[in-house]
């Protein structure tokens, strides 16, 4: 009578070369292995990758426009904040709402504009 291995082993392990192996109960004893992407890509036209992205025609105008929007937004929102908080006698709910919108707009400018320039 043949001996059958009835031990169930459910484990997942990743090896150094990103090979994912999953072992489940299998009467035949086969090892099922799935290879993952190792991050190596083959390009047919390698010269396109060697060119600098700064030479593209849209980079300089886009940087200038984003810079102007950033500076105008920062200066304009700071003026709103200082003007609204400058007078203690005029503070009301509407003014505080405008201040909170200006602060949110400054935070948006500080996060989105640099992210878009680096993209």
Automatic annotation (TrEMBL):
For this protein's source organism, the top of the classification is: Eukaryota, Metazoa, Spiralia, Lophotrochozoa, Mollusca
- Any stretches that span the bilayer, and where are they? 64-86, 93-113
Q: Which domain of life is it from?
A: Eukaryota
**What's any one GO cellular component for it?**
plasma membrane
Membrane topology per the entry is: Multi-pass membrane protein
* Residues annotated as domain G-protein coupled receptors family 1 profile: 76-119
Q: Is Transmembrane helix a UniProt keyword of this protein? A: yes
Q: What is its main location?
A: membrane
In the UniProt record, does the keyword Aminoacyl-tRNA synthetase occur? no
Spell out the Pfam families in the cross-references: 7tm_1
Query: Mind listing the UniProt keywords for this protein, alphabetically?
Result: G-protein coupled receptor, Membrane, Receptor, Transducer, Transmembrane, Transmembrane helix
Which PROSITE patterns does the record associate with it?
Answer: G_PROTEIN_RECEP_F1_2
Compartments annotated for it: namely: Membrane
Single Gene Ontology MF annotation: G protein-coupled receptor activity
In Swiss-Prot or TrEMBL terms, this protein is called G-protein coupled receptors family 1 profile domain-containing protein
